[in-house]
Amino acid sequence: MEKSDTSDSNGRCRMKNERQRAGKRRRRSETKRKPNRYRISDALWGKLKGLIPPRINPHPRGGGRKPRSDREVMDGIFFVLRTGCQWKALDETRICSGSVAHARFQKWVQAGVFLRFWQEGLHEYDDCKGIDWNWQSMDGAMTKAPLGGGKNWSQSNRPG
Question: Helices marked H in the chain — which ranges?
């Protein structure tokens, strides 16, 4: 029996194996670029981009590791805000590092990025639907602590 030039020593088709390997490589690269429901839309990013202050390189000679893009970090921040997960859980999502996201979140809060974003959102909603600024409502609840906030030491739960 004569072997063709497309089969290996085990009789498997080389072409098929190469296609499978190429398919696996393609699938891995596609998952990195695949849009996710936790990613920021292009329209939203266009509004946020102008609010973020320019990043200053702290390295004395201008070197160092290239920083993660602001968009990736903002994706991570919004992921944490939407899901309520811990910052370090971002490491498993591969959106960005949890420590980088938390550090930039703190810097951007101090710079007022999120406050300005919220204000611009209010103005845009006011232009679109209209906000009646004369009528506002607030909801809240206050109750007394069951034991007055302290412990009743006179009643011990210990036997004896």
Answer: 14-33, 42-49, 70-83, 90-93, 98-111, 113-128
* Dist. CA 44–CA 75, nearest whole Å: 11
Domain segments of the chain as ranges: 37-55+67-130
Q: Are 15 and 6 in contact (CB under 8 A)?
A: yes
Read out DSSP for 78-123? Answer: HHHHHH---GGGHHHHTSS-HHHHHHHHHHHHHHTHHHHHHHHHHH
pTM of the predicted model as reported, rounded to 2 decimal places: 0.60
Question: Tens of pLDDT along the chain (160 residues)?
Answer: 444 454 455 555 555 555 555 555 444 434 444 456 778 888 888 888 989 998 887 777 777 778 889 999 999 999 999 999 999 999 888 888 999 999 999 999 999 999 999 999 999 998 988 888 787 777 877 777 766 666 656 666 667 6
